[in-house]
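Example 3.2
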Amino acid sequence: MTFDKLFGPATIVYLVSASVAALWWASALTTRVQTIERSTVTAERIARLESEVANLTESTKDLKHGIGDLVHELRQPKR
C-alpha cells in the first residue's frame, strides 16, 4: 500500500488544519495564563498597599491623639 492510497488529500488537509488549530489554542491558553499571573501579582501588590494604608491610618490617628494630649497639657495652667 502506498502513501497516496492510505492517506488521501482530505486527510492530510484535516491533519494539518487540526494541528494548526491545536497550536493556536495552546498559544491562546499561554497568553491567558500569563494575563492571569500578572493580574495575581497586581492583586497581591494592591493587598499589600491596602494593608500599609490601614497601618498608616492607625499611626496617624495615634499621632493626632498624642498631639491633642500634648496641646491639652500645655494649655493647662502650671501649678
